[in-house]
């Protein structure tokens, strides 16, 4: 993992402004981990826009703050249509609304705000990503789940054992958007399988 303690200070005011919206759904764990994955992907994809990718991953899920936790689990994380459920669309709309507020209050320009909001709006529900920035944010959004921490959190969301969830990740690892993302997913999942003793459990 990259060291995020230096070189990312320009985003500190955004973290502080977004903090009140980050406890929902353990986003205060998901977002820092996914932010680090976005930073890692940006080391490979240097042609992507760093500010837009990092701000979009930082703010993409703060819209969950506006949605009842029971609804999140019942409608947003189970069933065959979970990725198209109303709460999924709602968390994107609310993410655009709250994200715009956060970025305005931290003095980002309109062009950056528009580009970040374009990614937030549809990050779960739009079938295909539109460009490299979008693809990097989508991969960073998923990569944290391949690590032990992500497996631990997602197991609870989806009511699965670590072994059953790892099987689901085996399918998902090849569907990431970028080549680097697919490699990180495969390596991280293999390491998590070892750590969690999934060859036995
Ligand atoms: Fe989301
Ligand atoms: Fe997310």
Kindly describe this structure.
The chain has a single domain (11-195), classed as Hypothetical protein af1432. The protein has 201 residues and is mainly alpha-helical. The two termini are 27 Å apart. The chain is built from ten helices and no strands. Helices cover 62% and strands 0% of the residues. The radius of gyration is 16 Å and the shape is globular. The structure holds fe (ii) ion (2 copies). One fe (ii) ion binds next to loops.
Which architecture per CATH? Orthogonal Bundle
Q: What structural class do the secondary elements suggest?
A: mainly alpha
CATH uppermost class: Mainly Alpha
Radius of gyration: 16 Å
Name the average pLDDT.
Answer: 92
Bound molecules: fe (ii) ion
Distance between the termini: 27 Å
What is the percentage of strand-forming residues?
A: under 5%
Measured as a percent range, the helix fraction is 55-70%
CATH superfamily membership = Hypothetical protein af1432
Give a quick summary of the entry.
The chain has 201 residues and is mainly alpha-helical.
List keywords for this structure.
single chain, 201 residues, mainly alpha, Hypothetical protein af1432, binds fe (ii) ion
């Amino acid at each position: 993992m990259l060291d995020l303690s230096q070189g990312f200070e320009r985003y500190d005011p955004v973290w502080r402004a977004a903090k009140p919206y980050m406890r929902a759904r353990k986003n205060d764990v998901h977002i820092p981990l996914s932010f680090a994955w976005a930073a890692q992907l940006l080391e490979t994809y240097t042609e992507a826009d760093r500010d837009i990718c990092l701000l979009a991953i930082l703010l993409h899920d703060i819209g969950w703050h506006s949605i009842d936790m029971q609804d999140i689990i019942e409608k947003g994380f189970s069933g065959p249509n979970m990725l198209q459920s109303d709460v999924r669309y709602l968390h994107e709309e609310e993410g655009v609304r709250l994200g715009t507020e956060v970025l305005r209050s931290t003095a980002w320009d309109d062009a950056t705000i528009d580009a970040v909001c374009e990614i937030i709006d549809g990050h779960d529900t739009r079938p295909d990503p539109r460009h490299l920035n979008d693809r990097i944010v989508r991969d960073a959004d998923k990569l944290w789940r391949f690590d032990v921490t992500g497996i631990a959190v997602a197991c609870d969301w989806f009511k699965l054992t670590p072994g059953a969830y790892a099987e689901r990740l085996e399918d998902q690892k090849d569907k990431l958007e970028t080549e680097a993302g697919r490699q990180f997913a495969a390596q991280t999942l293999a390491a998590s399988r070892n750590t969690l003793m999934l060859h036995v459990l």
